[in-house]
From TrEMBL:
Protein's UniProt name: Dehydrogenase
PANTHER family noted in UniProt: D-GLUCOSIDE 3-DEHYDROGENASE, UDP-N-ACETYL-2-AMINO-2-DEOXY-D-GLUCURONATE OXIDASE
GO molecular function: nucleotide binding
Top-level division of the source organism's lineage: Bacteria
One Pfam family linked to the record: GFO_IDH_MocA
Residue ranges constituting the GFO/IDH/MocA-like oxidoreductase domain according to the UniProt record: 134-258
Gfo/Idh/MocA-like oxidoreductase N-terminal domain location: 5-118
Cross-referenced Gene3D superfamilies: Dihydrodipicolinate Reductase, domain 2, NAD(P)-binding Rossmann-like Domain
Biological source species: Peribacillus muralis
Species lineage: Bacteria, Bacillati, Bacillota, Bacilli, Bacillales
Coiled-coil ranges from the UniProt annotation: none
Amino acid sequence: MEKVRLGIVGLGAQGGLYAGFLADGKVENMVIGAICDIDPAKKEWAAEKYPDVPFYEDYRDMLDSGDVDAVVTCVPHYLHPEIGVEALKREIHALVEKPAGVYTKQVRELNDYAAKKPHLTFGIVFNQRTNPLYQKVKEIIDNGEVGQIRRTNWMITTWWRPQGYYDSSAWRATWGEEGGGVLVNQAPHQLDLLQWICGMPEKVYSNVKYGYQRNIAVEDEVTALLDYGNGATGVFITCTHDVIGTDRFEILGDKGKIVVDDSKKVTIKRLLKPESELSDSMSMQDVMKIFMGGNQSDIYTEEVLEFESEWGAQHIAVLENFTAAIVEGTPLLAPGSDGIHGVTLANAIHLSSWLDKEIEIAFDEELYLAELNKRIDEEKTAPVTF
C-alpha cells in the first residue's frame, strides 16, 4: 500500500480539519479516499472544495465502495463504536474520535470485536499523547523519578462555553444526542492523560452539577475524588463556566513533585532523599532552618521545562502514527482499546453523582446504562429550565 486512503465520516469542524490536512499533503502516506456526511450543504461544499473526492451520504455505502482503506469517525459520540465495528467487519482500519463512546458497554463491544481482527489497525484520536510535555511527564513517572504516587490533582477549567454555544445545535449538551456534558465533550483528553500517566483509580466519589450555570440538562461542573486503592488519592475538577480558567496538574510522589501549568510549563522537584527518610532523620531544628528562610536546595533540586505546541501538529502526529501502523507496523501511541479507560472514568463519575455514593471502577455496566436511559427519557418529556 503506497498511500492509505482515509474515509472521513462527518465533515464538521473535526472532519473538515482532517480533510484540509490531507489535501495539503501534511500527513505522510495518507490521502483523502472519500467523504461522508448526511448534510446536503456539506455535500455541496465538498463538491466545490474537493471535486475529485467521492462523496457518500451513508457511511456503509462508503465502506462498501472500495474507495477507502481506513476511516475516521468525526460524528456524535454514540456512533463511534457502531461505525468502528462496521469498518472492521469490512477489513477496513478504524480510527475513532474521542471519546470512544458514551458508555462502557458499547465501547467494550467495539474493543471485543477489534480484538478478533488483530491484523487491522484500530486507533483513537488521543492527540495529547503526542504532546512532548505529557510524554515527558509520563517518562518521569514511569522512570520512578518522583517515586510512588501519593496524590494527583488536576484542575482543568479552561473550557468556558457561553449559552450560545449550547444553543447552536439541538444535539449539544443532551443525554440522548451527546451523552453528557464537559466529561464527554471537553475533558476526555484529560481523563485519558490522567490514567495514562498515573494509572486507573479503583474507586470514585463525585459531586456533579447538572445545568448549574447553563440552561442544559447535562453536567457543567464536576469535582471527583479518586481512590487508587493503595492509599493514594486524587482530585479531578472541571467545568464550562469559568471564563478565566485554570489548567494545573500536580502529581505528588514520595520522592518529589511534578507541577504542570497551562499545559506549557513543567516544574519537577526531586527530593534528595525520600520524604519518609527526611521525616525520620530531621529534627525540628533542622526543619526550622530550612523552612524559615533557609536553603531548600538541601532538600530538593528543581527543573523547569517549557514547551510550545504548534497548532494542528498533534492531530497530524496522530494521523501519521496511525498511517505508519498500517503501512509499517509501527506501534500505536493510542491504541483504540485504550479508549475505554476514559469512558469508564466519566461513567463512574456520573454514576457516583446519580446514586450519591462511592463507585467501584468495576461498576455494573447495565446499571449505568439504565440510569443513563432514565435521563434520556426525562429529557424527552421535561424541558430544561434555568
